[in-house]
Design brief:
The structure is a single chain. Helix content is 50%, strand content 12%. The protein has helices at 5-11, 61-67, 74-78, 85-100, 106-134, 138-159, 181-203, 207-213, 221-226, 231-235, 243-246, 267-291, 309-314, 316-328, 368-374, 376-380, 386-395, 399-402, and strands at 21-25, 37-43, 46-53, 168-169, 172-173, 335-343, 346-354, 360-366. The protein has 404 residues and is α+β, with helices and mostly antiparallel strands. It is built from 18 helices and 8 strands. The strands form 3 sheets. A 3-stranded antiparallel sheet has the order 1-2-3. Strands 6-7-8 form a 3-stranded antiparallel sheet. The protein has a two-stranded antiparallel ribbon with strand order 4-5.
């Protein structure tokens, strides 16, 4: 008696060479520096499909903002891309100021620009240091993290904090630059130059590093544009799009700087973009320091800016002004606006809607690394399992920003 056809199929031994294996990598995997899950389909060690799951660090950033006053949103923005919180602060402040139709002081614009670029360099050092460590270049990682400390010292001197700075306010900032900022900056840049030179010599012509990065995770410029990718990922494909040049804000249009671009759109180009951009940020800061004007860093409108502490503690008018702004919030005219800034990972946008009250009616953020994660599947197919780590590292996915 012969077996039914369906039983014969079940009893057929699968060819191990043709078997497609499904493997779940993450969400807490020791080789990835983020809470992310890769649902892989593998032919041996070669990736034939990769479904990327994000959202494990979702904390309702937008809804939390809508529960507080406009000023109370700033601590939440710190926690988006926490490697460069000054840029997040500036982006949200610019969005609200556009709704209010107010212009900040000249010195405020310069200081915001300087601190944004300092934060960008610190962010790139973090990304490149981690990427170096992931391919075994741990010495380079330590060098870059050491250089990042020089910049964190600067940020701490200005804002009073190293990471969650909550430094911007609507209409200005909490602190001006300290009196010895120029000397501190010059000393930091001198040491930064030395570290970057060492890292360049250790990596740029290193055979192992190039083999792990070059030709891996290639994305064409058409695909990059289609996926909405911006920042170093887009510029690595050869598209010279940068918000600081395309739609200048603050005083970026007063300074000379270049937009580095790549040719192949692979991981090596992405690494090189961030490396070159650090020199351009340094160039912008040096120009800004030479031409920064004197003056206040905040406007003086009592309907927008909190009064000084001395006035709050020593006068009933100051106390009432402080109470009204804290409890009721700044009365932002009804309307909506989208404000984009160039974050370390690309276009960081804030879409805010006001109903005329002291609280945001709607807040929506465009997180740049979220779009990079959307394109990750495209970059990984056809490559090997170890290439996941290097490609993921070059997207620089920050959970606080991507998952929000």
């Amino acid at each position: 008696m012969s077996l039914p056809a369906r039983w014969k199929d079940k009893l057929t031994t699968a060819d191990p060479a043709d078997e497609i294996m499904e493997l779940q990598m993450g969400p807490s995997h020791p080789a990835s520096h983020g809470t992310i899950k890769f649902n892989l389909k593998l032919d041996g060690e070669r990736i034939i499909d990769c479904d990327v799951e994000v959202g494990y660090l979702h904390r309702a950033f937008e809804k939390m903002c809508e529960q507080g006053t406009w000023t109370q949103c700033f601590p939440y923005t710190d926690r988006l891309n926490y490697a460069s919180p000054c840029i997040n602060n500036v982006g949200f402040a610019l969005a609200v100021e556009r709704l209010l139709g107010l212009e900040t002081t000249e010195r405020c614009k310069y200081v915001r620009l300087i601190m944004s670029e300092v934060a960008r360099i610190a962010d790139h050092l973090t990304c490149l240091g981690m990427a170096s460590s992931e391919v075994g270049a741990t010495t380079v990682a330590f060098y870059m993290l050491e250089a990042r400390e020089f910049l964190y010292d600067l940020i701490e001197a200005v804002t009073g904090a190293r990471l969650t700075v909550t430094w911007c306010r609507v209409g200005g900032m909490t602190h001006d630059l300290p009196p010895d900022f120029d000397e501190r900056l010059a000393a930091s840049f001198k040491r930064l130059d030395s570290v970057l030179s060492d890292c360049d010599q250790l990596l740029s012509r290193n055979r192992v590093f190039i083999d792990r990065m070059a030709g891996i995770g290639i994305m064409s410029k058409e695909d990059a544009i289609s996926y909405g990718v911006t920042g170093p990922l887009l510029r690595a494909t050869g598209v010279a799009y940068d918000v600081r040049k395309a739609t200048p804000y603050l005083v970026y249009d007063r300074f000379e700087f270049d937009i580095p671009t790549g040719e192949r759109g692979d991981n090596y180009d992405r690494f090189k973009m961030r490396f070159d951009e650090m020199y351009q940020s340094k160039r912008i800061i040096e120009q800004a320091i030479k031409s920064i004007p004197e003056g206040p860093v905040s406007i003086t409108d009592p309907k927008v800016v909190l009064p000084p502490k001395e006035k709050v503690y020593n006068s009933i008018e100051g106390l009432m002004n402080h109470f009204k702004l804290i409890m009721e919030g700044i009365k932002v005219p009804a309307g909506e606006v989208y404000q984009a800034v160039e974050g370390a990972n690309g276009e960081l946008g804030f879409y805010v809607v006001s109903d005329g009250s002291g609280r945001p009616y709607r807040v929506r953020v465009r997180p740049p690394c979220f779009f990079g994660m959307g394109a990750l599947n495209k970059m990984l197919i056809g490559h090997m399992i170890p290439d996941i780590i290097t490609t993921f590292g070059m997207i620089n996915m920050i959970g606080g920003e991507c998952d929000r």
